[in-house]
Amino acid sequence: MSLLRRLPIDRFLLMLLGAVLLASLLPVRGEAAVAFAWLTKLAIAALFFLHGARLSPRTVLEGLIHWRLHATVFAATFLLFPLLGAVITWLTPALLPSSLAMGVMFLCLLPSTIQSSIAFTSIAGGNIPAAICSASASNILGMFITPLLVGLLMSAEGGGVSMQALGAILLQLLAPFLAGQLLQRWIGERVVRHKARLALVDRGAILMVVYLAFSEARVAGLWGQLSPAALAVMVAIDMLLLAAVLVITTLASRWLGFSREDEITIVFCGSKKSLTSGVPMAHVLFPPALIGSIILPVMLFHQIQLFVCALLARRYARRAESAPPR
User: Fold this and answer.
1) Superkingdom of the source (predicted)?
2) Within a domain: 159
3) Which of 177, 183, 196, 322 could form a disulfide with 52 if both were Cys (CB 3.0 to 4.6 A apart)?
């Protein structure tokens, strides 16, 4: 029992798996599904509004001065990951169904996380202001870059992005975020002060999207198309992808002459992928019948990255404690 408590098992992931199970057993259908879809869109808009209200514009501007670090994180997030995703999906066409292969590629096109990137950077003793700026900028720019990369790299797989989809991204995700930024001066402190309560909005929105996506996938017969072997291969690919990025970002940061603190920031910000941004984007960019299998690799990668990066952050922290004082 004590071992389970020490393991960094994400309770939110357990809730996500519960939503998947509920959708598999009791999917929402018909007119109820249409009404639930509208409620989900409103919840997503609230989620991005709160993100905008939390983020201080001053913090972003102050962090922008460390451009070499941000450029390295940006390259890992939007260049290295897509390159690895393209190579992996090209090498494993017979091992994964096309929908899961699309999910792996979509995972590689997502922006970095904010909360976990900053949290692990802090635990490991990295450059926290730079982590805040890099992770935040990745999420903001990702609202533009991810849909464009989907259109560029996934069009051959049927995931191309149209002007209508781009408009939906702007209306559903960016507009609420900008509204939150405009009101941040007046409501930002209150939002941060009630962060624990407002986290229910964040998590509730994601749970609603997951439940709706897997309900639609259940109605479309998703589980009959996926074998246990395909799921096992997908998990192995997620693990391989994370391991490759962690190794490459570590070696690259040392080769480029970054300090230990900056190396930590690059490793943790450059290796993450955002479930919070990915699920709503998938809901906007892909047909309903595909969303369940598209976000499945993202959900599993989310838990894998939390577990592995928690262990890695502790290792960095122990090395810093045992290092002789400078």
Assistant:
1) Bacteria
2) yes
3) 177
